[in-house]
Design brief:
384 residues; alpha/beta; Fumarate Reductase Iron-sulfur Protein, Chain B, domain 2; 4-stranded parallel beta sheet; 7% strand; globular
Length: 384
């Protein structure tokens, strides 16, 4: 969505909502609840369709901005389950329900109506003098480092030690595979500002980062954080018209390819039962759910699927800034982890740093090793 989108441009879209409820459930005949805020509150207003109706009511001056509206808009994890809607995106500017919720957040920011906890998250980001130019200090081994390589590892969003360990595992796997690669570590891409609705601050950042990303055109760019990948590959061209689309590839796709080519070998036969949690931005936002399963197949583990998986995955709760609401985040993560326990699997794997941390946060210390990022797991079982 363009950062200068206005109510008039969205008028046709928001007027089309039929209140059919498709935005809250998976496809028939399963009809699993997928919208976390609807599943928790059980009222239509607490759903993508309900928030779309609020945008329409504001546009028609039938209501004003309220603290309750702000609470719902920011509690929504932007998990994209509602984007199955085949009605709202039809007229120009072809925006999805998730994008309309982001638009509502931006309007709330302009009205100084954001929840206090969301404001704290934002101000914490802005207090960091290195936020926009933060570099991680990650290093590639000399054996695989080549600043002119046609494959580039895009580093962004490494805010915690847990996230850093995932990137370090990825770098070790690159070395094990003997892949020549360059590193793009130029600071934040801005996806958190986009999700939180701080679009005025975002425009300058995207313009600056877009010029740096120009060096990646024509190269294969590997991403680990699907939030960053979706934002850079899909949203940058919308926000910055002159920005050329980057050829992005998630690290699980890279792993599936090198395992298929025999460039990585498993240390020993594995006898472990695992379940895989599809991250929302990876499975729905980017349409990537086959590659992680191919990786698990190559490793020879037993995969037991949860009821809600693939495009019908259920959110971990940490997406879209909703992590500011720890009670809601924990409720969603526990709901998903209960579903994992039903499988009888020993290990829950995922492919997004945020998902891993959301699940581990609701577990006692002695159980946290039951949750791993797929990259970490592959690094553990692959021979040097």
């Amino acid at each position: 969505m363009k950062l200068n989108t206005n109510f008039d441009e969205l008028d046709s879209s928001v007027a089309l909502c039929l209140k059919c409820g498709m935005c809250t459930y998976s496809a028939w005949p399963d009809c699993y609840p997928l919208c976390p805020i609807y599943q928790r509150h059980r009222v239509y207003t607490a759903s993508a369709g309900g928030l779309v109706y609020l945008v329409r009511a504001i546009a028609e001056r039938k209501t004003g901005y309220t603290s309750t509206m702000a609470q719902l808009a920011y509690e929504c994890p932007l998990c994209e389950a509602c984007d199955v809607c085949q009605v709202i995106p039809v007229p120009p500017p072809h925006v999805s329900p998730t994008e309309i919720v982001r638009f509502l957040r931006h309007q709330l920011v302009k009205q100084h109506m954001i929840p206090e906890r969301t404001g704290q998250v934002y101000h914490q980001l802005q207090k960091d003098p290195n936020y926009k130019e933060r570099k991680t200090g990650l290093r590639l081994p000399e054996r695989v480092k080549d600043d002119n390589a046609n494959t580039v590892l895009f580093v962004d969003g490494v805010h915690t030690e847990g996230e850093r360990r995932i990137y370090e595992s990825a770098i070790r796997l690159l070395e094990k595979a003997g892949k020549t690669i360059a590193l793009f570590d130029e600071g934040e891409s801005g996806y958190d500002l986009y999700d939180l609705g701080f679009w005025d601050e975002l425009s300058e950042l995207v313009r600056s980062r877009s010029r740096q990303i120009e060096k990646l055109y024509g190269k294969e760019t590997l991403f680990i954080n699907p939030h960053c990948q979706e934002f850079v590959t899909r949203r940058y061209p919308e926000i910055e018209p002159e920005h050329q689309q980057v050829r992005g590839r998630h690290f699980t796709e890279f792993l599936a390819n090198v395992l298929k080519e025999g460039k990585l070998k498993v240390k020993r036969e594995l006898s472990v039962k695992v379940s895989y949690h599809d991250p929302c931005r990876l499975s729905r936002g980017l349409g990537i759910h086959k590659a992680p399963r191919e990786v698990l197949s190559f490793l020879g583990v037993e995969l037991v699927e949860m009821r809600r998986h693939g495009e019908n995955t259920y959110c971990c709760g940490a997406s879209g800034g909703s992590s500011a609401f720890s009670d809601f985040l924990n409720w969603v993560a526990e709901e998903r982890f209960r579903e994992f326990r039903e499988t009888g699997a020993e290990l829950l794997l995922t492919a997004c740093p945020w998902c891993k941390e959301a699940f581990q946060a609701v577990l006692p210390a002695e159980e946290r090793e039951k949750v791993k990022d797929l990259i970490e797991f592959v690094d553990e079982v692959i021979a040097v």
